[in-house]
């Protein structure tokens, strides 16, 4: 019997950040194949722009301001200048409070949300990057038309959007599927065959449920309940529940408990119409609902109109959705993003460093090294209190723990701390506080055996459970190391990182990573859910039944790093409070690609090697991607136009191409600047300053620290580029943001190295795409040209 793609493809995206979607997923409880249903699609914004150089911004008429002027004030002048081109009434904006100044680069990242008639335009985003009085780059997807009349008004004509979706369904039939062997593993590199009938049936069912669902409505056009039940009918993976909602709509509507949400403070221009809705079928927490506008294509498809929608935040067992559903009946889902991707000084806690028997940092998996005893290597800047301390006020367990007097810190002896809560999740549920995790006692020595025995497949799960202490300790160690590394490259509190307590350094708190080992919701996969800053990220790591004994994804660092990189890229792109910027198409694909690139860079060595993703867990030498990552075009021929090939429609395949391009870029930087044996910057001095050592160049006062070596520099430029790029970026915009990041960091000394490296894989200055669609379609042309300043005169 053949098994097919593990992630159900929904037209318009193939989204959902699920690692290794080419592997079949099955339940540990019944061993039956399952698919995690995920929705992800939305309208294209033909008017959206991204300008990545100050020159183009000045050419358009905006001149630099006084370098001593407050960046937010400069942003207001700039926004007013942009909005002055429209004389329509009712258009305004708010500067989001997740805007911040990056202390390492001096760039102020200002995030702006458009308001129309006092309501947010949910996809009306502007990100403005300012330094020394100058707008150095910006992205803008503000609505440009005439504001509709305030109130519920009338619905926008949906025929154009519906036509686009119908074409998407048709286009999906041109895909080809990988060949699978009898064990359910992909046989990549072999001749591909048409998509099997079973898969097409799944695809067609998703098309029908998403775009042709039954229509629900009540007598009140402003009743939020019918729109929410319309979404839940589509979103639930439970066909019986969907039918029940359809047959008993009024009964389900009556059960919903709708309560208004009151705001103590408000923007003068902003109107809040928000509700909390409880007893929602298939939701695990109350649903947040608010009125907003969203942009949909006009009849010609060359501009957008505004549609009044209900915005829902819906947390389910396997999904965490941010959805926009038309406020008018018949209710239609316009866009949906799945966030699941498959102070005052405080005294420091008394800290007894822990010890872990783990595959140490840089050892990717059991096939390339042995375990070793490692002293808790927490970074004193990223994790000042260590990995096993958490303030009582921010501790989800504190209600069940007796607090000593006025103690601020709780010191733990388990895999529970300020950055990460690691535990088993055999039941596959959302509960985590009371789940099992190892307790190492006062010594905090997490030293456990790992020697799984060969068993029958039916006994594989029970054998793996014997080593849960080893597994959870490893997951805790790797996740904390990644937290500290990302912090040192700029993913800090203000940028939206994951911590329960932020040490008075900005950002929103109470969002440490919930890291579940042996998650009972599947096999042969992993995923990460990224809500906005201030809500816990959730990572689910699975066992892999691709070999006997079963292999544990928690022990393959590349998989863990890939998943944590979703939280990084989603929080940095478009700002910490907007988790909807990498939902589908090229932007969603790059979300996958950054994870592969960062994981591969972390495991790399000074002596160059090619690397596969997921090779150990999947028990496949070439891993779970179409190609291993290599600078050799015979080994990995991926170029920009590869995205047009059959089978490259989904976010993981798109991500492979982006990761390969970044891998080539990083190797060219290494050729120029050399290689650092450690990606971790030096420990800060007592006064908080960072010694350059052999890691950073010596920087002039007030200038950003610049990594000396190519591999560390490439990581820095990629993260800085995420901060500069617009919401919903494409390959061109992400490329330009990295080049802009180098201009900010080094004055542009790597301008030609970067352009030549991108051009090597078809993403040169003359690359183009025609007929681009939101889900990643279009006709691409490779570009191998570079700017004139980088062209070599062969006649000289």
TrEMBL record:
Q: Which organism is it from?
A: Coprinopsis marcescibilis
Give yes or no: UniProt keyword Glycoprotein: no
Q: Name one GO molecular function term.
A: metalloendopeptidase activity
Q: Where is the signal peptide?
A: 1-20
Q: Which UniProt keywords apply?
A: Hydrolase, Metal-binding, Metalloprotease, Protease, Secreted, Signal, Zinc, Zymogen
Q: From the Swiss-Prot or TrEMBL record, give the protein name.
A: Extracellular metalloproteinase
Q: Carries keyword Metal-binding? A: yes
PANTHER family assigned: EXTRACELLULAR METALLOPROTEINASE MEP (PTHR33478)
Entry annotation: catalytic residues: 563
Tell me the InterPro entries matching this sequence: FTP_domain, Fungal_virulence_M36, Peptidase_M36, Peptidase_M4/M1_CTD_sf
Q: What's any GO biological process attached to this entry?
A: proteolysis
Tell me where it resides: Secreted
Q: Which residues form a coiled coil?
A: none
Cellular component (GO) terms are: extracellular space
* Annotated FTP domain residues: 94-142
